[in-house]
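Re: folding output
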Amino acid sequence: MTEKDNLNLKTIPVSKYMTKNVITATADQTIQSICILMHENNIGSVVIVRRVVDGLKPIGIITERDIIHQIGKVDLFTTQSSVRELMSGSGSRDLITISSDTSVSDAISTMHANNIRRLPIIDDNDKRMIGIITDKDIIKIILRISGITTSYYIPSTFNVAFEERQEENKK
């Protein structure tokens, strides 16, 4: 039996493929500082956290899409505004998270049901954030299980980052 035969989206936990070193910010940071973080780290979202004694507790997420929607709906947009009003997890938009033992299949279902592309992963015991999984991570998993050569579908920089993440998760 090959490794591929043992891989099933219903049995693979998201912890196997999650990014552990999540880029975070606090709710009082400005939209401009969030945009700088996204640009410098070549990412499309930043998890907004509250610092607690034993780690980071996710309270929201801000995405490129959130920023674009805000710019498009107001006459005057200022990059010095706080991200507090824009982030998912504020007001009526609760932050959706999953636990590390959630299957990839269930993560896909959660993303689809909520029309989201990123899921912070929390520790079941103390609710601190331990990682994040994205739609791009899931596509990579599906391609790997399918035996499709990913270099044709995903830029090589993503392949390298994904492989590095898997090595880091083994530690």
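--- second protein (sequence, then structure) ---
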Amino acid sequence: MAKKTAKKPETDYVSELSISSGKQPPNAFEFERLILGTAMIDRIGVEKAVKVLGGTTDVFYDPRHAIIWNAILDLRKKDYPVDLSTVIQELKRTEKLGLGGGDHYIIDLTMGVSSSAHLDYHCFIVLEKYFRRKMINDCARVIAECYTESSDTFDIHETLRMASTLCFYSP
């Protein structure tokens, strides 16, 4: 049996591979915008999105969207109302309004959203793109380990097996 080694810091292989190949990582930018906008104008929208996306910001490709989603989740956890004003206020309170794109960007997210009718579908598209980025990252990590002579083959195989199992069960 191979000995356990210290865990290495996570590498964002998706970004590295995208830069080297000139490809943009899988994402659904416009659907992310719709999800956030809907969550800020429709209370039911927040619950639908949380049900599908879970309580993590990792599913969002755009870092601004992850910051805004985190503010929405924080408000929800405190049982505060989630709307345009409260989200902006929460981002100001945590000094992350600029990182979230600013108040004009957040206001713009709500423009054109009329209902949460298709929100489940939008969430599944965003989740699918997240899974693709996660698979790219997991596969690249396994490939990098294969080139490392000090890596145990059976540990690499177990990592690959675990990655394929966990990818779809850990948003």
